[in-house]
Design a protein that fits this description.
The complex is a heterotrimer of chains A (about 90), B (about 375) and C (about 475). Chain A is mainly β. Chain A is built from one helix and eight strands, in the order βββαβββββ. The longest helix of chain A is centred in the middle third of the chain and has 7 residues. The termini of chain A are far apart. Classes of the chains: A mainly beta (about 90), B alpha+beta (about 375), C alpha/beta (about 475). Chains B and C meet through α4, α6, α8 and β17 of B and α11, β23 and α14 of C.
Chain lengths: ~90, ~375, ~475
């Protein structure tokens, strides 16, 4: 994810969280979707039927493609706010 | 003007299509009139449970034969014989379970009791609070949503006429039989069979016959795909839960919890006040459900009469008019009883007795 | 118990809620996002402490300020998953994400906005493919553009906004692929002139693209998206007047992101579930609840305003919110006169209708959906399977759904059923009205049992009479 281009943008402090075992940096208050995009992580899970790779798609809570797992609970990456130390996993394939 | 058919069958579900197929074998020319799509009413939206343990004692012989029919249909309807467990969690339920299963066993169902430990070995994800368990190896399920696809193919192969989106608005006697109209379209047939489930009361009324048909509004829910959690069909001693996990990982949850609405007003609605306890009971039985998402809940109309036995035979006070419906366990029994119905209409003696729609009906006892 | 609940805090819904509350009605406003503004005036993320001001941001902030100083009870991060009409005519909403699990109201306004139409092509499920509207959500909320190169494809004005905004946020754009021709745009200009400021904005977008030498492929469409585990590029082709692909015109364009969409459709799932009558009107973006000029649906106590009642766009939305609020007040015996707004609406919808007209699917569009294309993302159902089902007799969305599992996954058919209807229309020559909508079923979004219920005390389970023996 690129910065602000010709816009002047001041972002909140950097925090880190874990996605699928790896450390990822984000700004406090961002959604998980934005933080992952910033980190260049687009492949979020595999489709349960075909196993094909999937990533965030509608980014407004409808398509269910960006579902991730936090503490064993499913959440939409596009509607979940990131916080320091959050541990996020890929939804296990079925 | 359409040719005159030997029989018009109102309702393109399992009952109507099954009867039409039997009639075609007997050389009778039928036309099926369906208000929506073939097999999309109760036939296509029920939970698909093929369990001997939830069948009525008197209907057991029909259920056993119906089960064989489903087995024969096989993959085309997603048939799976998984075995089924019915669970009791307290003394009252255990007593109920023993009393009921004994009678069902006597009626011919292959039901036995197993220990909670045996259940736990087979189904380790189920709640450990079970105190009594009955088991039937014949139990299983079919995929009810494939009913329409299956029967459409079958009736098509046999060259049976059908019209979808034909919502009957009027029926009148004509010299050749009956004229059945949907708006400005009309079909004439020598005979008529009413086989439209929850909508049958409304249709029989068009023939001036008042039958005490009521409709239950059963709720069914399905989850997203989940890892393998149960391999058998699971029931509850009270009958208030049926649960099975399909090959694709989705879990289907039923149990006859009541939604809202009337057949004349559409397809019925899910009521949160019964859906939530239905799902809570499911989670109680299978705790891992707590974090699996429900993706859809729906309702289907299940017709019945006060004594909860089928209507299968000639319509009282009308010539050449028949009715088939209100079969408790109709999904399981449907493919078989519709054959009996076909034989009856063809003037043959059915191999098992039918159920006179003109009988006196007393309110069935609820235990 | 509320006098009125509004679902959807975009410009239509929020404005309706404020007016209702100003007229003394106890009003709640629910939205699944974390603040008001909807998609068009989407609120900035809390991670942005300071940023240059944008028009949309200013309008959104003004709306959010008005809302804060009103008596509207707002419920954000809150999702309605079921809507039931009670016997007394009140509405029961089942919700997750708030303190309560149930809310009851006398009047219900549905202002759920639009959803995106996305025509499936091979590879559209790859990571790196975003909805056009989805991209705008990231721009507005997080003020950032995807890393590496972005291809922008589809139709309507959103295309140019997304491309230009990607550049101004520091992203790179490989190309803009517009299925509309230049002539399409010229034809829509007179109606669009009803709103000179938006035309001016559009010109700025085009200017930005030209300045950055971004190629615009007019009357072209994405034929397939290529890549293993992420987007590598797209194959595009020319389309004819009916938007059918023209053979022998394939070109490959490199890029690691694809922002892709074919216009907006009213999000009617909530009004449909609530039992309102709907009809199909392509000029309004597709299926819409049948409403009077104020927003009353066919069901007493149920109102609809904003893009979910027909894509008129952001300009018309606040006015439509006012009109719906007026209808609610009037039906509750409170007199407010906002008839003047109807005149304003007539002007405001001109631009929205012209923009929507650019996105009306044409007969050739279905040809882009090849046999092997996964139409249903959730269940992986291909066009071939759908075609076969129709060929063997399935004639309605319900029948196709039952036979194939298309639309039975977690998204509830939101991203496939319109394509299924498009394919059905092509195969059966039936009208969209005849084809109909699949039956509306809850939940409106997937919910876990934990989300919707408290823990069960087994003895409290309401056990009705058991079944007859």
């Amino acid at each position: 994810m690129t910065g602000g281009g010709n816009n002047h943008i001041l972002r909140s402090k950097e925090i880190s969280f874990i996605f699928d075992g790896a450390n990822v940096t984000a700004h406090e208050g961002e959604t998980v979707a934005a933080a992952l995009l910033r980190a260049g992580i687009t492949h979020l899970r595999n489709a349960p039927n075909s196993g094909t790779p999937r990533g965030m798609f509608c980014i407004m809570g409808a398509c269910q493609e960006c579902v991730i797992e936090i503490d064993g609970r499913k959440a939409e990456a596009c509607r979940t706010t990131i916080s320091e130390g959050l541990v996020i996993g890929r939804v296990p394939g079925v | 003007m359409m040719p005159i058919f030997d029989i018009a069958i109102i309702g393109g579900g399992i009952m109507g299509c099954g009867t039409a197929l039997r009639l075609a074998e007997g050389g009778m020319r039928a036309i099926i009139l369906e208000q929506g799509d073939i097999g999309q009413g109760a036939s296509g939206v029920n939970a698909g449970t093929l369990s001997m343990q939830i069948k009525r004692v008197k209907l057991m012989p029909y259920a056993i034969r119906g089960h064989e029919e489903w087995q024969h249909m096989g993959d085309a309807v997603g048939f799976h014989k998984t075995g089924g467990y019915t669970l009791a969690f307290n003394d009252r339920e255990a007593e109920l379970l023993h009393e009921r299963m004994k009678m069902k066993k006597e009626a011919g169902a292959n039901i036995s009791f197993v220990s909670p430990k045996q259940l736990n070995e087979k189904e380790p994800h189920l709640a450990k609070k079970v105190i009594a368990v009955s088991y039937c190896p014949d139990d299983g399920y079919a995929n009810s949503s494939l009913t329409g696809q299956y029967y459409r193919k079958k009736i098509d192969e046999k060259g049976i006429n059908f019209i979808e989106a034909f919502k009957v608005t009027n029926i009148r006697s004509v010299s050749d039989g009956y004229e059945i109209a949907s708006g400005d379209r009309a079909v004439v047939a020598s005979r008529i069979l009413i086989a439209c489930g929850g909508w049958s009361k409304h249709i029989t009324a068009m023939l001036g016959v008042d039958l005490p048909i009521r409709a239950r509004i059963n709720t069914v829910s399905v989850t997203e795909r989940a890892p393998q959690l149960v391999s058998s069909v699971i029931g509850h001693a009270t009958g208030l839960l049926t649960m099975k996990q399909k090959e694709n990982g989705t879990i289907l949850i039923g149990g006859g919890w009541q939604g809202k609405g009337r057949p004349e007003e559409g397809r019925g609605q899910v009521s949160v006040d019964s859906l939530v306890p239905n799902l809570q009971l499911a989670k109680f039985v299978l705790p891992a459900l707590s974090n699996i998402r429900i993706v859809r809940s729906w309702t289907g109309f299940e017709a019945n009469v006060p004594d909860f036995y089928p209507l299968a035979g000639a319509l009282p006070n009308r010539d050449n008019a028949f009715i088939l419906g209100c079969v408790r366990g109709g999904f399981t029994i449907g493919p078989y009883i519709s054959k009996l119905m076909g034989d009856y209409i063809l003037g043959k003696e059915p191999e098992m007795p039918l159920f006179d729609p003109g009988r006196k009906m007393e309110e069935g006892k609820l235990i | 118990m509320f006098d009125a609940i509004v679902i959807g805090a975009g410009p239509a819904g929020a404005n309706a809620a404020i007016l209702l509350s100003e007229n003394g009605l106890k009003t709640a406003l629910i939205d699944e996002q974390r603040d008001a503004g909807g998609q068009v005036w989407r609120a900035k993320s809390e991670s942005i402490l300071e940023a240059s001001i944008t028009d949309a941001g200013e309008q959104g902030d003004a709306l959010r300020d008005r809302l804060k100083s009103s008596n509207v009870i707002t419920k954000f991060n809150c999702r309605v998953w079921h809507i039931e009409r009670l016997e007394n005519g009140h509405w029961l909403l089942s919700v997750v994400g708030g303190v309560e699990k149930k809310l009851i109201t006398k009047a219900l306004i549905i202002a759920t906005g639009a959803q995106e139409r996305v025509i499936p092509v091979p590879g559209w499920t790859l990571p790196g493919v975003f909805g056009l509207a989805g991209a705008t959500a990231i721009f507005k909320e997080h003020m950032m553009a995807p890393k590496r190169r972005t291809i922008v494809a589809g139709n309507g004005p959103l295309l140019f906004y997304v491309a230009s905004e990607t550049l101004s946020l520091g992203g790179r754009v490989s190309a803009v692929i517009s299925i509309n021709s230049r002539t399409d745009w010229l034809k829509s200009l007179p109606a669009m002139l009803s709103n000179p400021s938006l035309i001016w904005q559009g010109l700025k977008w085009i200017f930005t693209l030209n300045k950055n030498r971004i190629p615009i492929y007019w009357q072209h469409a994405v034929k397939s998206v290529e890549g293993e585990n992420m987007v590598d590029g797209v194959t595009i082709c020319k389309v004819d007047q009916n938007w059918a692909p023209v053979e022998g015109t394939d070109q490959y364009i490199h890029g690691e992101n694809l922002c892709y969409g074919q216009g907006l459709m009213p999000a009617v799932e909530a009004t449909h579930l609530a039992g309102a009558d709907h009809h199909y009107d392509e000029k309004l973006g597709g299926w819409v609840p049948t409403i009077d000029q104020w927003g009353r649906t066919s069901v007493a106590g149920l109102y609809a305003c904003g893009d979910n009642a027909g894509i008129y766009g952001a300009l018309a939305a606040p006015i439509r919110g006012s009109l719906a609020a007026q209808a609610v007040c009037e039906d509750a015996g409170i007199n407010i006169d906002r008839k003047a707004e109807i005149k304003k609406l007539k002007v405001a919808i001109k631009f929205g209708l012209a923009a929507t007209a650019l996105t009306i699917p044409r007969s050739g569009l279905e040809a882009l959906i090849t046999g092997e294309t996964e139409v249903c993302r959730c269940e992986g159902i291909t066009r071939q399977e759908i075609d076969f089902e129709i060929k063997t007799g399935a004639q309605s969305p319900n029948a196709i759904k039952s036979g194939t599992r298309c639309g039975m996954g977690p998204c509830g058919g939101r991203y496939c059923m319109d394509s299924v209807a498009l394919i059905t229309q092509h195969r059966t020559k039936k009208s969209r009205e005849e084809i109909g909508l699949p039956t509306a079923r809850p939940p409106l979004r997937p919910v876990t049992i934990d989300d919707i219920s408290d823990d069960l005390d087994y003895d409290d389970l309401p056990i009705p009479g058991v079944s007859p023996l």
